[in-house]
Specification:
Elements (H helix, E strand, L loop, with lengths): L4 E4 L4 H15 L7 H9 L3 E7 L4 E12 L2 E11 L8 H15 L4 E6 L4 H10 L3 E6 L18 E7 L3 H8 L6 H6 L3 E2 L1 E6 L2 E7 L7 E6 L3 H7 L1 H20 L2 E9 L5 E8 L5
Parallel strand pairs: 4-5, 8-11
Antiparallel strand pairs: 1-2, 2-3, 3-4, 5-7, 6-7, 9-10, 11-13, 12-13
């Protein structure tokens, strides 16, 4: 079936102005990147990719630029979003795949970005579907933020690295199979968090920071936005506890290698952290 969208790179300045409206639709008025900055990114070595529908209306976008950190040059992806009425149609995946193609065509083999590890859709796409890995955890990276997506919690971020031609990435983009939590536990993996269900949400009962295993499983809420509405105190506790776990284990040589979905129709989610595995 023909897709209802295509991925393009804008050239005309008036086209870039449409992206301000799209950003407002996705993130709210306070988070809009001015169109003239997007033009500069595009024309000065960055990348601005746009998904447009059959009426040429922008329905998704991403942008980033070449960056350097600790002497390493890579592509830094700063923003990716899809219009609310067009989500779950594969648009974000298509944008990332076109980005991968474009970067490889231009000799760039590593991309990095930041994500909130409590935001399941973004993390599932990045780590499970695309095969990127989590390497570093930054506490309250942006400080207090006002948009609905971030409001109420510290802006913690997981740094993601996407090695575009690695075996891990090639395997995931061809077929992202789902690991089985019970099988991992039978093979020696350990759960870090115990939970209890109260009403419509799971709350943390207790957690451990002293477990030793090559593979550990870190549960996270299935919908942190819903949890913030039901119990902001529970959401804050999830942030604080997962922060402690990620910071300790990533600093001790673990990598975030997957975000596993377990059960239907009300799935639960577990990050898989592994020690002694190749980044490729």
């Amino acid at each position: 079936m023909e897709e209802d969208y295509r991925v393009v790179m804008f050239e005309d300045p008036d086209s870039f102005k449409k992206l301000e409206l799209l950003q407002t639709e996705i993130w709210g008025r306070n988070e809009t990147v001015p169109y003239h900055m997007l033009i500069a990114f595009q024309r000065m070595g960055g990348v601005v990719l746009v998904a447009v529908d059959r009426l040429d209306r922008p329905v998704g976008m991403l942008y980033g630029f070449i960056a350097m950190k600790n002497g390493e040059i890579f592509h830094y992806l700063h923003l990716c979003g899809v219009a609310p009425d067009k989500r779950a149609q594969g648009i974000a995946t298509a944008l990332f795949m076109r980005l991968r193609e474009y970067l490889l065509e231009n000799g760039v083999e590593v991309a990095r970005w930041l994500l909130d590890p409590l935001q399941i859709p973004e993390a599932r796409l990045s780590i499970h579907r695309l095969g990127a890995i989590g390497k570093r955890y930054d506490e309250n990276f942006y400080g207090s933020m006002r948009d609905p997506y971030n409001r109420g919690l510290d802006s913690d971020r997981l740094e993601i690295e996407w090695r575009l031609n690695s075996r891990r990435v090639l395997n995931r983009i061809s077929e992202a199979t789902e690991l089985d939590v019970e099988q991992l536990l039978n093979e020696g993996a350990r759960k870090m968090i115990s939970t209890i269900k109260e009403g419509l949400i799971y709350k943390i009962l207790n957690y451990r920071l002293d477990l030793r295993a090559d593979k550990i499983l870190v549960e996270v809420p299935s919908d942190i936005g819903f949890m913030k509405k039901v119990s902001i105190s529970a959401a804050v506790e999830w942030r604080e506890v997962t922060r402690k776990i990620f910071k300790k284990y990533l600093s001790n040589g673990y990598l975030v290698t997957d975000l596993i979905k377990e059960g239907e129709p009300h799935p639960r989610y577990y990050y898989l952290l592994e020690k002694g595995v190749s980044e490729d």
